[in-house]
Amino acid sequence: EIIEVGICLLDPETQAVTDKRSIMVTPTESVISEFCTELTTITPEMVAARGIPFDEACKILETDYNTRNRLWASWGGFDRQLFMKQCRRRKVRYPFSKKHANLKRVFGESEGERMNFWKALARLELEREGTAHRGDDDAYNTAVLLNELVQKHGIGILRRYGW
Questions:
Q1: Residue 16, SS3 per DSSP
Q2: How would you label 38-66 residue by residue, b for 16+ Cβ within 10 Å and e otherwise?
Q3: Neighbouring residues of 20: CB distance < 8 A, sequence distance ≥ 6
Q4: Rounded Cα distance, 102 and 132, in Å
Q5: Which of 33, 51, 63, 130 is the most buried (most CB within 10 A)?
Q6: Distance of CA 42 to the CA centre of its chain
Protein backbone atom coordinates (compact mmCIF):
# COMPACT_ATOMS: atom_id res chain seq x y z
CA GLU A 1 0.00 0.00 0.00
CA ILE A 2 1.28 3.45 -0.89
CA ILE A 3 2.00 5.57 2.18
CA GLU A 4 4.14 8.24 0.55
CA VAL A 5 4.30 9.73 -2.91
CA GLY A 6 7.50 11.50 -3.82
CA ILE A 7 7.65 13.91 -6.70
CA CYS A 8 10.34 16.03 -8.27
CA LEU A 9 10.30 17.80 -11.62
CA LEU A 10 13.08 17.88 -14.21
CA ASP A 11 13.33 20.38 -17.05
CA PRO A 12 15.84 18.77 -19.43
CA GLU A 13 16.38 22.01 -21.33
CA THR A 14 17.46 24.03 -18.28
CA GLN A 15 18.65 21.00 -16.29
CA ALA A 16 16.62 22.33 -13.35
CA VAL A 17 15.48 19.79 -10.76
CA THR A 18 12.65 21.45 -8.83
CA ASP A 19 9.50 21.01 -6.77
CA LYS A 20 10.73 18.18 -4.55
CA ARG A 21 7.75 17.11 -2.49
CA SER A 22 6.51 14.36 -0.20
CA ILE A 23 2.81 13.59 -0.04
CA MET A 24 1.97 11.34 2.91
CA VAL A 25 -0.93 8.96 2.31
CA THR A 26 -3.02 7.50 5.11
CA PRO A 27 -3.11 3.71 4.79
CA THR A 28 -6.50 2.01 4.89
CA GLU A 29 -5.57 -1.58 4.07
CA SER A 30 -2.56 -2.01 6.34
CA VAL A 31 -0.63 -0.50 9.22
CA ILE A 32 2.85 0.95 9.24
CA SER A 33 5.01 -1.79 10.69
CA GLU A 34 8.33 -1.53 12.50
CA PHE A 35 10.00 -2.94 9.38
CA CYS A 36 8.42 -0.22 7.24
CA THR A 37 9.59 2.46 9.69
CA GLU A 38 13.11 1.00 9.72
CA LEU A 39 13.18 0.96 5.92
CA THR A 40 11.65 4.39 5.27
CA THR A 41 11.84 6.32 8.60
CA ILE A 42 8.08 6.92 8.22
CA THR A 43 6.26 6.42 11.51
CA PRO A 44 2.54 5.97 12.16
CA GLU A 45 2.66 9.32 13.98
CA MET A 46 4.05 11.10 10.90
CA VAL A 47 1.28 9.72 8.71
CA ALA A 48 -1.37 10.50 11.33
CA ALA A 49 -0.20 14.12 11.40
CA ARG A 50 0.39 14.69 7.67
CA GLY A 51 -1.39 11.90 5.81
CA ILE A 52 -4.22 12.44 3.38
CA PRO A 53 -6.48 9.96 1.60
CA PHE A 54 -5.07 8.27 -1.51
CA ASP A 55 -7.66 9.83 -3.82
CA GLU A 56 -6.68 13.31 -2.60
CA ALA A 57 -3.01 12.55 -3.23
CA CYS A 58 -3.88 11.53 -6.79
CA LYS A 59 -5.83 14.77 -7.29
CA ILE A 60 -2.82 16.78 -6.09
CA LEU A 61 -0.60 15.01 -8.61
CA GLU A 62 -2.98 15.84 -11.45
CA THR A 63 -3.79 19.39 -10.36
CA ASP A 64 -0.44 20.66 -9.07
CA TYR A 65 1.86 18.75 -11.45
CA ASN A 66 -0.22 18.09 -14.58
CA THR A 67 0.82 14.43 -14.35
CA ARG A 68 -1.70 13.21 -16.92
CA ASN A 69 0.13 15.21 -19.59
CA ARG A 70 3.76 14.53 -18.67
CA LEU A 71 6.25 11.78 -19.10
CA TRP A 72 7.02 10.33 -15.70
CA ALA A 73 9.93 8.16 -14.69
CA SER A 74 10.78 5.70 -11.96
CA TRP A 75 13.55 3.22 -11.33
CA GLY A 76 11.98 0.00 -12.59
CA GLY A 77 8.31 -0.68 -13.11
CA PHE A 78 7.30 -1.42 -9.52
CA ASP A 79 6.03 2.08 -8.66
CA ARG A 80 3.95 2.24 -11.83
CA GLN A 81 2.41 -1.19 -11.21
CA LEU A 82 1.72 -0.41 -7.55
CA PHE A 83 -0.04 2.83 -8.48
CA MET A 84 -2.13 1.12 -11.15
CA LYS A 85 -3.18 -1.68 -8.82
CA GLN A 86 -4.05 0.63 -5.95
CA CYS A 87 -6.05 2.91 -8.26
CA ARG A 88 -8.02 -0.10 -9.53
CA ARG A 89 -8.67 -1.40 -6.00
CA ARG A 90 -9.80 2.00 -4.77
CA LYS A 91 -11.65 2.97 -7.95
CA VAL A 92 -9.54 6.10 -8.24
CA ARG A 93 -8.52 7.59 -11.58
CA TYR A 94 -4.89 6.76 -12.37
CA PRO A 95 -3.16 10.15 -12.02
CA PHE A 96 -0.35 9.68 -14.54
CA SER A 97 -0.10 9.63 -18.31
CA LYS A 98 0.65 6.41 -20.17
CA LYS A 99 4.10 7.85 -20.90
CA HIS A 100 6.33 6.17 -18.34
CA ALA A 101 10.11 5.76 -18.57
CA ASN A 102 11.57 2.80 -16.72
CA LEU A 103 14.95 4.33 -15.83
CA LYS A 104 16.43 0.97 -14.93
CA ARG A 105 15.93 0.01 -18.58
CA VAL A 106 17.01 3.43 -19.91
CA PHE A 107 20.18 3.23 -17.83
CA GLY A 108 20.94 -0.31 -19.00
CA GLU A 109 20.42 0.59 -22.64
CA SER A 110 22.42 3.82 -22.53
CA GLU A 111 25.21 2.70 -20.19
CA GLY A 112 25.40 -0.89 -21.45
CA GLU A 113 24.93 -2.50 -18.05
CA ARG A 114 22.09 -3.10 -15.61
CA MET A 115 22.56 -2.48 -11.89
CA ASN A 116 20.67 -1.29 -8.86
CA PHE A 117 19.80 2.36 -8.32
CA TRP A 118 22.53 3.12 -5.79
CA LYS A 119 25.23 1.59 -7.98
CA ALA A 120 23.89 3.52 -10.97
CA LEU A 121 24.21 6.79 -9.05
CA ALA A 122 27.78 5.87 -8.10
CA ARG A 123 28.60 4.83 -11.67
CA LEU A 124 27.58 8.30 -12.84
CA GLU A 125 29.52 9.82 -9.92
CA LEU A 126 26.39 11.32 -8.39
CA GLU A 127 26.00 11.79 -4.65
CA ARG A 128 22.90 10.26 -3.08
CA GLU A 129 20.96 12.89 -1.18
CA GLY A 130 18.58 12.34 1.69
CA THR A 131 17.17 9.12 3.07
CA ALA A 132 16.84 5.97 0.98
CA HIS A 133 13.26 4.78 0.48
CA ARG A 134 11.76 8.18 1.26
CA GLY A 135 9.54 9.31 -1.58
CA ASP A 136 10.79 12.87 -2.00
CA ASP A 137 14.47 11.95 -1.65
CA ASP A 138 14.14 9.00 -4.04
CA ALA A 139 12.27 11.22 -6.53
CA TYR A 140 14.99 13.85 -6.29
CA ASN A 141 17.80 11.33 -6.78
CA THR A 142 15.90 9.80 -9.70
CA ALA A 143 15.53 13.22 -11.35
CA VAL A 144 19.25 13.94 -10.87
CA LEU A 145 20.16 10.57 -12.39
CA LEU A 146 17.80 11.11 -15.32
CA ASN A 147 19.22 14.58 -15.88
CA GLU A 148 22.74 13.15 -16.00
CA LEU A 149 21.69 10.48 -18.51
CA VAL A 150 20.02 13.08 -20.73
CA GLN A 151 23.06 15.36 -20.58
CA LYS A 152 25.41 12.46 -21.35
CA HIS A 153 23.39 10.65 -24.04
CA GLY A 154 20.89 13.23 -25.30
CA ILE A 155 17.12 13.50 -25.05
CA GLY A 156 16.78 10.76 -27.65
CA ILE A 157 17.14 8.13 -24.93
CA LEU A 158 13.58 9.05 -23.90
CA ARG A 159 11.93 9.33 -27.34
CA ARG A 160 10.49 5.81 -27.20
CA TYR A 161 8.75 6.76 -23.94
CA GLY A 162 6.99 9.78 -25.43
CA TRP A 163 9.25 12.67 -24.50
A1: strand
A2: eebebeeebbeeebeebeebbebbeeebe
A3: 6, 7, 8, 136, 139, 140
A4: 19
A5: 51
A6: 16
CA distance linking residue 108 with residue 117, whole number of Å: 11
Q: What is the DSSP string of 19-38?
A: EEEEEEB--SS----HHHHH
| Chain segment 143-154, per-residue pLDDT in tens | 999 999 999 999
Best CA proximity match to 50, nearest among 115, 5, 13 = 5
pLDDT, position 163: 75
Q: Is 71 helix (H, G, I), strand (E, B) or coil?
A: coil
Helices 103-111 and 135-153: angle between axes, nearest 10 degrees: 30
* Count of C-beta atoms within a 10 Å radius of residue 11: 11
- pLDDT for 43-98, tens place per residue? 999 999 999 999 999 999 999 999 999 999 999 999 999 999 999 999 999 999 99
Mean pLDDT of 26-38: 97
The pairing of strands 16-24 and 72-74 is unpaired
